[in-house]
Amino acid sequence: MIGLFPRPRAVIAPGAVHVPGWLSPERQRKLVAACREWARGPVPMRHTVLPGGGVMSVETVCVGWHWQPYRYSRTADDVNGARVADFPGWLLELGREALAAAYEDEAAGAACTPDTALINFYDGSARMGMHQDREERSGAPVVSLSIGDTCVFRFGNTENRGRPWTDMELRSGDLFVFGGDARFAYHGVPKVLAGTGDPATGLRGGRLNITLRETGLGGVPAAQ
Question: Fewer CB near the terminus (10 Å): N or C of the chain?
Answer without folding.
Answer: N
